[in-house]
């Protein structure tokens, strides 16, 4: 029988594979929004070039009066709102698949934990939570709206530079394209895909566990025991929670929960603290940094790094407390 660790490792690989096509589709939609602005942007920069060549007094107020400039800003707002609608559809399709996968993977974890219930018990994952993610005032909808506002802001700032003696108009056009399609923007899109798919995946897992709650004593938080895992999650590893608990955790977190089957003797992985204590000193120092000495003396535990932050949009999430903060609490 596969161990809980091996099942989770395989599931993480499948999660990553499911994210990739969703991310590619979202990135393609974003790039298309940028590309559709090219003609209007060229028209504005050409007008600035012509005005400068003719000796016109070109400045921010001149730019604000230009019809081509106003059309560009309006078109940028339209195109990125269009991207928001397309992006929402792309992510919604991905999250539905993720929720179903989470429900199915929960059955595999139950089996590894000593409870075989079969696919007939696979729940029809409630869609209300997924649909709510895309309601007009939902956090995700607000995220997509910000892309439109930010795109217009980038265009305004760069074109003002063009008429106030900064980069030339043609160079600014290229800079706008690079700003809108920067690695940072691509990273934000990937983070959005990962967070929403994991949120739905965990919702599917929780729905499955809820169906067999009478056979469970709760659920257990499982983190990847790795130097790359944040210390907050290592501290949460093996913490117990009630059935139905949906993890509140930080952006791009890969942790999951497994069911604690009543009467099961299936072993769980070692605690985060035990795992870290068993690692070479080099790994301990890499994970803990300046907190290493306090850990070795028994004054600092991984639980000291657990911090809960609140967002009005997304709610509570477990994050990693900084080493400086932990040291201050221990010595203060």
Commentary on this structure:
The protein has 332 residues and is mainly alpha-helical. The chain has two domains: 4-211, Up-down Bundle (Four Helix Bundle (Hemerythrin (Met), subunit A)); 215-332, no CATH class. The protein is built from 13 helices and five strands. The strands form two sheets. A three-stranded antiparallel sheet has the order 2-1-3. The protein has a two-stranded antiparallel ribbon with strand order 4-5. Strand 4 (306-311) and strand 5 form a beta hairpin. Helix 1 (4-35) packs across helix 8.
User: Any idea what the shape is?
Assistant: elongated
Beta-strand percentage range: 5-15%
- Alpha carbon gap, first and last residue: 49 Å
User: Structural class given helices, strands, pairing?
Assistant: mainly alpha
The description of the largest β-sheet is: 3 strands, antiparallel
Provide the number of structural domains: 2
Class of the largest domain, according to the CATH hierarchy?
Mainly Alpha
List the helices and strands and how they pair.
Elements (H helix, E strand, L loop, with lengths): L3 H32 L2 H16 L6 H6 L1 H46 L15 H5 L6 H25 L5 H12 L2 H29 L4 E7 L8 H6 L3 E2 L14 E6 L10 H6 L3 H8 L3 H5 L9 E6 L3 E6 L2 H9 L1
Antiparallel strand pairs: 1-2, 1-3, 4-5
Helix pairs in contact: 1-4, 1-8, 2-4, 2-7, 4-6, 4-8, 6-7
